Structure formats: C-alpha cells, structure tokens
Amino acid sequence: MPKDSDKTPEKKPKVLDLIETPKKPSRRERQREEASQVKTVDDAKREALDLFAEEKKPKVRKTSQSGKTILPTISKLLSEEEAPAKAPEPEPAPAPAPVVAAPEPAPVAQEEIDDPKLVVIKPPILVSELAARLGLKPFQVMADLIKLSVFVAPNQPIDPEVAAKVCEVHGFRFEREKREKGGGVHKVEEVIKEPEAPKVEPEDQLKLRPPIVTIMGHVDHGKTTLLDKFRNARVAAGEAGGITQHVGAYQIVHEGHPITFLDTPGHAIFSDMRARGADITDIVVIVVAANDGIMPQTLEAIKHAKAANKTTIVAITKIDLPSANILRVKTQLAENGLQTTDFGGDTEFAEVSAFTGEGMNTLLELIALQAEVLELKSNPKGNARAAVIEARIVPGRGASATVIVESGTLKVGAPFICGPFYGKVKGMFNDRGEAIKQAPPGMPVEVIGFDELPNVGDHLSEMKNEREAKALAVERQETQRRQRLTPQHRARMEDLYAMVNEGGGKAQLKLILKCDVQGSVEAIKKAVLAIESKKVECVFITSAAGPITESDIQYAGSTDAIVLGFNVKVEGKAVKAAKAEDVQIKLYSIVYELIDQVREAMLGLLDPLTREKIIGHAEVRQVFKLSRGRAAGSYVTDGKIHRKAHARVIRGGIPVFDGRMSTLRRFTEEVEEVKNAYECGIRLGEFNEYQEGDVIECYTLEKIAQTL
Fold first, then answer.
1. Average pLDDT over residues 111-126
2. Which residues of 528-563 are buried (b: 16+ CB within 10 A; e: fewer)?
C-alpha cells in the first residue's frame, strides 16, 4: 500500500501539466528576461506602429458566458509545438487591381490618404457624409452649423466654406475633391447649328425643278382672276370685296411641266408681302390693266422686281374691254424701264383676257420658255429647306404655314427648325387640299406640326433629330428673351421737363389685333403705325393670328384696349366676356375700312380745341347805381351783345374782368340780344367797378375738332 500511494502522486503531475499554470521562472531567468526587455527609441517607435497593426488582427474567440479564452484540444496544442519547425504558409491575399487598367493616383490623392486629419469630399457636401468623415453623429455637426447660423437637415448640402469651418472646429482640414485634367464630370457642351444651304451642289445630283412665278401688280387689275383661269377655280369670288388680302400659292401643270404661282395682294399696305414674293420667286409677272395703265402699286411691283434682279414678264390684262388702250400701257412701261420686245426692248409681254381666255397659252409658253433659259435646278436629296410665305392657326390642326420647298425633299415626320421655333412635320397638304407624304423642290405645301406660329419670311430647315431642333429653338428663344430684357432708355428729368413744357405726352390708342393669317397681321400693323400724328399714337398690346378668344377680351379689359378682328370669328365665351367687361370688338373683312376707322378712332381721342369768337363790343357811357350793385349804361359800337355769351371788361387795353353776363336790358325789359347802334344796360356777374369809357367785349366759345 505505501508503495502504491507513493507512485500515484508521481503520475498525477504528468496529466495535469497540460492544464495547470506553468512553473514560475527562477531568479536568474527573470533577470535575463528583464535585461532583454530594455527598450530603445527604435523599439518604442516599432511598438507604436504595432499598436495600429494589432487593432486589425483578429481577436481571440471568447466564451459568451465568462469571456475567458478557450484552449484547443491537447492534440492541437502538440501539433502547434511542432509547427515552428515549418514555415507558416501565407494566406492568399486578394488579387490586386491590374496596374495597367487603373490610372496612377494623383499626388494630391496620395497625400489625402496619408493625412488622417484631411477630409476630402466631392460636392455636393451632405451633412450626413461630413459627419461620417469626422467620426461624429449628424446631430453634432448640425449643432455646429447652428452656431454658424446655418440651418439644414442631415440630407441637405452645405457650402464648402461652411464645411471647412466645421472641420476646423474639430481639428480637421477640409478640401474639395480635385480631379485630373479632363477627368471632370461636366458635359462637353454640344454646339448645335442650323444646317446651311450648300453653296455648290454636286452636278450629278442636281435636277430640274418647277419655276416659282409671282404675280404682282395694282389692286383690281385681274391678278387673281388670271390665276383662276389657270386653275379653273374661283378664288377671287371668295375674297372680301374681290380684293386679294393673302399670299396664295398654287401649282399647275403645263404640257407636263409643273409651274408654281404666287399671288400677292395689290393693296398699298401689303408692300412687304410683294417684296417677300419677289425675293422667293424666279420669274415676276407684272399685271397691268389695259384700261387703267400703270398705277402706284404697279410701279412698286416693278421696283421690287428690279431690286431682286428677277426675270420680268408683263401681262397686259382686260384687253377685251372697250376702254382698253394697249399702246398707252406699253409707252408707260417704257417710261419706267420695261421696254417690250416689239418696242425694241428685252421685256417679254403677253396680251391676255381672263374673261375670254385670249392669250393665256401665250403667257404660259413665255413662262415655260424663260424657265428653260434659266435652267432652274435643285438637289432633291439634300437637306430640305423651305421659305414660309404665310402662317395661320387652323382649327383642329393648330399652327400651320404655307411654305415653298427651295431645296431637298420635305417629308412627313421630318424634324425642323423655323426661326425661333421647332417642330415635326405631322402632315402636308398641297394647294388642292390633298394630303401628301413628301414635297419636292419648287412645290408649295401647307405644313402642320409647328410648336408655335412661325413668322412669315423665316426659313424652315430640316434637322437631324427632334432633340437638336428643340435645343436650338430654346437657345434662340433665350437670346430673344435676353434682348427683350435689355434695359431700355430710362426717362430723365430733362425729358420730363420737356414733356411738361410741350403740354404733356401723346394720347394713346391701345389695340389688340387678331387676323386670320400672320401676313395680314404684319401688313395691318405696319399700316396703322404709319399713320403720322404728333398728338396720338397707336400701341398694339398684342397682335397675332387666330380667332378672338376670351383671354383677348380679358386682356383688353385690363389694359383699356379695343379689339380689332380681320377675317376672324369671335368665340362664344369671348362674346359673353366682352359684354361683361364692356370691351369694344370691331370686325372687318376689307383692309382699308379697318385703316380708316382706326384713323377716326385716333381723332376721337383728341379733345376739340376751344376758340373765342368775338361777336360785338359796347362802350360804357354812364354808370348807374342800383339797390344791388351797379350797372353799365352802354352803347353797342359793333356787332351785337348777347345775354348768354361771355363778356370781359377792357380798360386801357387791359382786361379787368372776364365772366358771364347776368343782365341785359333795353330800358326796363330783359332782352336776349342788342344789336349795333343801340343802347342797353349791362351787368356782368358780381362786377361793380365800371368806369365811363370801359369797353365790354362780348364773345362766344367754339369747339373745333383737331387733326392728326
């Protein structure tokens, strides 16, 4: 037993050696260990760096209950003791990004990474992002911002200057993110330009196009009737008063060759339309009536044709009338620079009658011959360009314009730019009202699909896509808006003094003009503004094409304007609004009636002039004292003295009283008037200081209408 008990304690330490704490080192071992732990400066630096590395090392797994370190099994411990003989295998590191694909970081970016006190954020700088970079909560950063009088939410941006102040409070430096040259996020602004018409087209792509012929001349000389005969239509019958007031575009076919005609108004106010027609056209046909000869608008048409340097043909119309004098017309043409071929000149002419049809074929042959000589060619495959000759609002279709294709082929669905507006061709109609898919050069068509009503005279150009067309339109509209917002001339004190000395400014007649087409708007507006007056001026509040709407009436009511309508209708709501707002609406179908009534309205704004008319004089011979004041016993020297007239007392050539006559008597009777060479008693108002020898001048006030 004693031997067994002695053996048992010897085996027990061998089993518990693995789990019991190790034996304490001896004194000598402790001294060696302390000597090895003496730290140098380099060791201190190394330990300081190791502190950061140790924070990234995985922590030792602990139990959830006690938090003590769990030792592995004995077999693992034994294997770990033998492990130092072997070199530990390095853990596979994540594959680094390829150096070739990624650009080298900028030197500034490397400094930013190395400096822990540097905060770099790309604008916009959000409060929450700044707080995360500073290691703070958003509410802490918001508290700092409140001290700086900046009140924002966590998801709202702040200025870089404010962010720099917040960083400075917490011991950080702030910098905006810097980019390498060319590495910014800003888009390169795309420059969009309208396609320009090529100066030289390839010869192999040029093809003959129809000639564009403009009919010009004086009003009522038979221009539209001439076209009616060509088209077998009755356009003139549909015009108010038989006068063309729009630009019409038509196309006929003569011996298999199409010819495009433009019919321009002959009235005086449509000068711009005639000038525009002369610019677009290839051949100008001057229409002169054989019974009237050359008239003012005929001379103007000749001037426009010469200024545009266009081929001119003279059509002498109404030769079937008994009063026709063709020889006189040719003589007048020669006097104005158009010498006909039979007079030895180079101007072709044709004697025609639209009523009987005489000479019509001759005129068409002359036009076809001149077109053949001119060799009019265009490229149908190029970029489509067209000239706007008329524009209007069509109910159910919106803004539409009559255009003549100058080059290229205009197709349905093509995006375009026209002046400051853009659009997409939604539909096209020829001069007979038929829907077509494409329009070759020289063809007049009505285009639907404008964003806004275009200006007459602008050019329609096809664009690559609708996006570019819209961007270019926005740019042009912005340019126009800036021009309108440019500071105008301000009134100066000297100007105000001058206005006071002249008796005030001009009276204003405010107008709102609505017409059926844009061309009429321009012509009427120009004619009204051309009315010369030093006392009254016309101001157009708005002028546009389309029917008179309720908004027009409300605008007129707020600006005290008169609404003028030319060949337009008044909407039902507008009629009710006009009665409620007491707005005057004037509708016209003949242009010169509108101009005349505007002139009369301008005269109506002028107050009539008041002038004195002397009707008689009386000399004071004796002064009578009455119970109530005094009376002047007078003798009428000339004219007459009327009881209801005005009178003044003149003493020594200077008036001393002016007023109404209160009493006029012959002896004791009240009378209405006293004629020359008669005596009478006169009292003027409350005047009592009569003296013998005073002259009483009697006069009346007349109102005379002013002139412009």
1. 73
2. beeeebebbebebbebebbebebebbbbbbeeebbb
